[in-house]
Structures are given as structure tokens and as C-alpha cells.
Design a protein that fits this description.
With 318 residues, the protein is α/β, with parallel strands linked by helices. The chain is built from 13 helices and 8 strands.
């Protein structure tokens, strides 16, 4: 989960962007929107960036070839598989939230050098921040690896997640963020890999995993409501990704999918990330599949989610 700065290009459709993201008139002055997310929605964001005419691709903030102008037109601090629980990034050696915030502070310093302190602060204040994390906390750290199950029951662990999310949001606020949308946890029990690991011989959706996700979402939503009352001049929104993705899984034909219980890569039951490679093979037509690998949706799946999410939460961020 990491800050990303986006901006429009010369062919940007202003009315479309304002309609989709609900930015205030100040957007026209500063031409930027800051976003924060993890791997599961990196593709989702990239698609929305392209469709809205902001830019085709987002360079990584840590890219050694990053140009100063990229700071104004969009950079990504993404580190997939991190989470609200500090143990989650430690298990897979990815960048934790604390370090991502350090990178973001560094970015702000560079932005101020580039456009001046006043304009940089105004850009941050009038930008939209998307925060997406939690799925790896539950799916990996808690259920798969199981290290946290020795310390917490589900209720206690979801309390830890909500506390971590609250702290991250407070830090973003201190750094100038004022419009923040926090994504909930998806129905992890229905992801192909989690069906394999927790769904029994028939690979059904794991109700235990899904119930944990729902409990986490309840606490995340409550935490956001509480923060909204204490952080002045902020717009905090909870984004229900659980229902959106579950609808694609439960009603595949309505969305043009034929396969939702396995991915297009390899067997589709367990392969993910590096296990999806030139030796694993892929399905003939990925547009029939909701999932590309056993954890992440296909481009078609992401495009549908992008459309639903942007349209549903526009007014809340105006």
C-alpha cells in the first residue's frame, strides 16, 4: 500500500475524469491526484489511469531512470504483498508501510523542489488517495503461513489490522492527504488459491476465510468513521470491494465469464506470481476467465471492477 501521484496528459478528458473521480475545481489548477494501493489493485489502477487519459503507464518511484517531470505526472510506490500487519511484508521481504511512508516523504520533498512548497502542499491537499491492503494479511500471514494464528484469534487479528490501517491513514493526513478512500478486503475465500488451500476437496469458497474478510471490513469501516470525526477537513471513504468481486464470482455469466474458480495460468489452482512463467502455460482465451493466476483477476475482470468502483464512489470524494 503506497502513495502514487497521477496527473493528466494533453489529451486528458477533463469532464470524464471529474465525473469518474469527482475531483474539485482545484484539480484543474494542479492537474494531479495521489493514490495508494497494493499489488492486487495495481493492474486495476493502471487500467483506470489509461482509460481516464492520465498516462499510459506509471513509472516506479524507485526506478533509477525516473525523470523529475514524472513526479508531476505520476509515480508508483507500490510494493505488492505488503499489509497492515508489519509481519506480512517481513514474511515475503517486501517494503513495509513504514518504509513506504519514508519514500512518500522523500517524494514530497522532491515535489516541493520542483513546483514550490505552496503548490506542492495544494496538490496534496486537493488530491485523492486510495489505500488498498488487508488481503495478504489474512490470506497469507494469518491463514496460509499461520504464524499469527498462534498469537491471535480472528477477532484479535482483525483488530490489529484495523489499528494498522488507522495509523497509516493518520500518517497520510500528517503529510497533507485530505481525500482518502480505503478499500476493504475482497472475498479471499473465493480466490482460486484459497479455494485450493481452504475449500476442501471440492474447492468451494472458504466460508471461514470470507467471514474473516467481512469482519475485517466491518472494523475497517468503523475505524474510518471514527477517523472522519477526528481528522479535520478530510473526506474518508470506505470502498466495498468485497461485494463487487463477489458479484463477478457468483454471477459470472452476467459479466461474460465462464470460469471463476481457477486462473488462466497453469492449472489455475495454485500458481501465482513467479509460478506463472513460460513453463506453466496459459488458457486459450483469458477473456473467459475472471482470474489470471490463482490470486489476481484478468484484465477484463479488473476493467469491470474499475468501472463499478469509480462510478459508485465518485460523489463521496467530491
Amino acid at each position: 500500500m503506497e502513495p502514487i501521484c497521477l496527473t493528466k496528459n494533453k489529451d486528458f478528458d477533463q469532464s470524464l475524469f471529474q465525473e469518474e473521480l469527482g475531483l474539485t475545481a482545484n484539480y484543474n489548477k494542479h492537474n494531479s491526484v495521489n493514490l495508494s494501493l497494493t499489488l492486487i489493485l495495481i493492474t486495476l489502477l493502471s487500467i483506470s489511469v489509461d482509460e481516464l487519459g492520465i498516462k499510459e503507464l506509471m513509472p516506479a518511484y524507485l526506478d533509477p531512470n525516473l525523470q523529475p517531470e514524472d513526479l508531476k505526472t505520476g509515480v508508483s510506490f507500490a510494493s505488492g504483498a505488503t499489509g497492515f500487519d508489519p509481519q506480512t511484508p517481513a514474511l515475503v521481504s517486501v517494503i513495509p508501510l513504514s518504509k513506504q511512508l519514508d519514500h512518500f516523504r522523500e517524494y514530497i520533498g522532491k515535489l516541493k523542489q520542483l513546483v514550490g512548497e505552496e503548490e506542492a502542499n495544494d496538490i496534496l491537499r486537493n488530491s485523492v488517495f486510495l489505500v488498498v491492503a488487508g488481503s495478504d494479511d489474512l490470506a497469507n500471514t494469518y491463514f496460509t503461513v499461520g504464524i499469527r494464528r498462534l498469537q491471535y484469534d480472528v477477532n484479535g487479528y482483525t483488530d490489529l489490522m484495523a489499528a494498522g490501517a488507522s495509523e497509516f491513514i493518520r500518517e497520510l493526513y500528517k503529510l497533507g492527504a485530505r481525500k482518502i478512500a480505503v478499500f476493504g478486503v475482497p472475498p479471499i475465500g473465493c480466490l482460486p488459491s484459497q479455494r485450493t488451500l481452504g475449500g476442501g476437496k471440492s474447492r468451494e469458497c472458504s466460508e471461514e476465510y470470507n467471514q474473516a474478510a467481512q469482519l475485517a471490513n466491518t472494523k475497517l469501516s468503523a475505524a474510518i468513521d471514527s477517523l472522519s470525526k477526528n481528522l479535520l477537513q478530510t473526506k474518508l471513504v470506505f470502498v466495498d470491494i468485497y461485494s463487487s468481486l463477489l458479484d463477478l464470482i457468483v454471477n459470472p455469466q452476467k459479466h461474460g465469464f465462464e470460469v471463476v474458480d481457477r486462473g488462466c495460468c497453469g492449472t489455475g489452482n495454485i500458481e501465482v506470481v513467479i509460478l506463472c512463467n513460460k513453463y506453466s502455460g496459459t488458457c486459450e482465451d483469458d477473456t473467459k476467465y475472471l482470474f489470471w493466476d490463482s490470486y489476481h483477476p484478468t484484465e477484463k475482470g479488473y476493467r469491470i471492477l474499475v468501472d463499478q468502483i469509480l462510478k459508485k464512489y465518485v460523489n463521496s470524494l467530491i
